[in-house]
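Running log. JK asked me to keep both predictions on one page so they can be read side by side. First protein, sequence followed by its tokens:
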Amino acid sequence: MALPDASPVPVPDASLVPDAVKDAARRAPGHWIGIVDPEWNVERTPPEWAVLGEWQSDESGGVGEYRANPAYRPSARVLGWPEPTDPVDAAAQRAATGYGTVEEALAELAEADVTVVRAPDGGPLMAAGRDGAPVVLLFTSPTHEFMSAALHHDTLPARELARSVTAAGALLSVNPGAAAPLLVPADSLLGPPDPAPVAGAGGPHPTEPWPHTTGRTP
């Protein structure tokens, strides 16, 4: 599966302490107060890679030193990527940035309806990949479609499409113009759907990085 690189983003300005960090410092003097990426919305201790950095609270509850986290992985939202157009696009963005998995993206794709361009013989139009393998371009939202309106488009279940092109050894190029395109073997959609929930489902969904007390000051 091909995914784009998640490039680093600037760390927060240490001189601009968020009010939430100030409040957390007052409640937890003598700790490091971490700022958690807004995509991490699970109600449990965040992993190191989801923490942008930390401010140190002194023994009186004031905010002092800031240290960036070199292991931080910025989410799609922090990177400024477009809002996802649909569940497949959202899962692909999470997989590309490390906040989800490829398996979750495939599970969403397997249950989706997709749009393809039809070839003259009625089958899905195929292109040649760089290695010569046949590739079917498909789209999960009109937002991602860039083919001419003069071409014959058709919508069908993704699994039905996968079954029709698996014998040819085709790859599926999903939303090739999106921030997080997918390139997957067609037969990867034909197994049983992954029952695992999408990462982060059911938790709070903050719009900004939120504070997390990571431990007492060494």
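And the second, directly underneath as requested:
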Amino acid sequence: MIEIALHSARPIPAQAVRQLYDAVDWWPDRTVEQIGAVLAQHAAVGAWDADRLVGFARALSDGRFHAYVEDVMVHPAYRHWGIADRLVQRLLEALAHIDTISLFCHSSLIPLYERHGFTTFEKQKVLHHAKQ
């Protein structure tokens, strides 16, 4: 049985997140130390199969008005089990006091987020400014 738990209830080791990033081919340049710093400051939820982290979601927030969902990922061997839905739901419960929660995602994932009440805003665009 997959357990869904907040980082505050069941600490998520940074190394486990690094391994999950590797499994889903995300963020190869993020170090364990950087991930640890992020975990210490943001809402995070883990999906556990016994002692193995198989899913992860996190959000950044100002603590009251806005939150931004940054990562929702599930190990490829555990996809299509409803884990992403459970991660999003638990993250939204943890952020229930926040007025607006936003994210951006691949168009194929829009139905996942719509199931949880997210809507698209066609008039808004996502802009990025990245370090060179």
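Observation for JK regarding the second prediction: The beta strands are 2-6, 43-49, 52-61, 66-74, 100-102.
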